Predict the 3D structure of the following.
Amino acid sequence: MKILQICHKPAYPPIDGASIAMYNLYNGLSNNGHQVHVLAINTYKQYCNIKTVPLNFITESNYTLVDVDIRVRAIPAFLNLFTDKSYNIVRFGSVALRDAIEKLIENNTYDTVILESLYATVHIDLLRQKTNAKIVLRSHNAEFKIWENLYNNEKNTLKKWYLNILSKRLKKYEKETLKKVDLIAAISRDDNVVFKSEGCLTPMEYTPFGINFNDEEFKEYVSPEKEDLVFFHVGSMDWIPHQEAFRWFLEKVWTPLNIKYPRAKLHLAGSKMPEWITRGKFPNVIVTSGYVEGKTFMNKKCIMVVPSFSGSGIRIKIAEGMAKGKVVVTTKNGAMGIPCTHNENIFISDSADEWISILSRCMQDLELVKQISKNARAFSKREFDYNLAANKLIEAVKNLY
């Protein structure tokens, strides 16, 4: 097949969950003989200098970057209140992006167009006008659920009012868009359940996040040893619900645990670390601020803590952690979309007391850690192999014809 993959942020370099998911899908598809062109929105926050991209990737993927300023601006946001459009979505539209899509369609005959996330659907009407290709929405999240959670958790009256407007408009846009595509390829089973509960009748397929197990970081599995019993988390802290989850963890779990195990250490890495974490209020917390290579940071650390109480989709860092044989301790929301099993290949609980018990067991029982680690690795190879994920998507598209 000849495929156009439209991405809401640069697919290369693969430095965060979304870009990793998009880059690995490209590799899975091209590795199985499909020709894939990649068009990506180049945002201010995740800006990519094309000169830093490997020439072979540019050539093979026809990698095209379009600069779009999606920053939230006060005046456009205010004026948007007097429309019925979703401000979350309209920020991604631009004449330059429209022109780039039109040029690619005019010069190529695509069998399939993959829209990576709801934010890549901003010019979907153009695609319908200009091409007969099957259009696939690869849903990274049920986006409106994220904003509904933000609205529900907000205490400030004015912010709550505004978030209510944003979430309702985004939900309306998402439901309308689901009707316009030929296939919904969600990377989380739970998101397909959400869409069906909203009355969506568009064909759906679960096409999981893919991992390249030939990559050097994932190729070899090493069973953890006693010196690897180190707690860690890697990820950006620029999302308020993420910060709130870690405040819960550090106050309700880590501080009591550290009284019991004063030598236990927690390594946190990622950008936008808030001052209340970096100023050293919590015992034995080692913070690495700024961007770090997550897969490398995980080395020589075994127990991955992922508290999460908001959001949708899957936590790609959890999938990568399991692929490397890490013992993941998370909440029900954190494990959302991953068909894993508590006490078999992961630990899942929303109780602070149970978290303390789980982490204590990990500190005391190396054989338990080794077994969970081995099971996590085996599970991830069955569930997340990027070739299997790409083929599953292609088979779903073929079934549309």
Q: What stands out?
A: The chain has 17 helices and 13 strands. The domain at 218-384 is CATH 3.40.50.2000 (Rossmann fold). The chain has a mean pLDDT of 92. Residues 157-180 form the longest helix (24 residues).
